[in-house]
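Exercise: predict the fold of this chain.
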Amino acid sequence: MSLILPAADTPVPASPDIVAIEAPDAVPGPVTTYSEIPVAEIDATRLAALRAAGLRLKLRTGGVRAEMFPSEDALARALWAAVRGGLAFKLTAGLHDPIRHRDPVTGFEHHGFLNVLLATARALQGYDIERTLADSDGERVAAGVAGIDDVLAKAVRHHFVSFGTCSIDEPVDGLLRYGLLPEDPR
């Protein structure tokens, strides 16, 4: 279970099921805490302060308005800063599909969680990642992800810890569509 707190001084119930906390400031204790910083405000200094405080980074990648979706360039800068700074991060909002796409209902461009995973791997290898984040060719992105070896996968997992989604079915369906799950786990 993960808790989202409005402030660091909010009482946290004692429970072995709580494995992560999201708060605007540091929360004392042994539970992993994530702090959300707007993508446009991420820089090496802010990330160093998070790391020094023992916090992880939460990146917002979507929402109910178009301006809540960061551009590929802005997200790439944030991912690069996190990777260079050795910081773990999670992503929230807008990542229902594995591949970058335009939502037919809202018209918003959505980042794909596989694009982010592959961009994190490429950042670790020193490659340009803006094009990876912008790539809407699902077969190409899936092939890139499938080509990540165990050593690189471990390094990616150190940084890209998780992503939030309102749907379990959409991400699973996407992974099945691109052959990245051997069978339907549902």
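Check your answer against the key: The first helix runs from residue 44 to 52.
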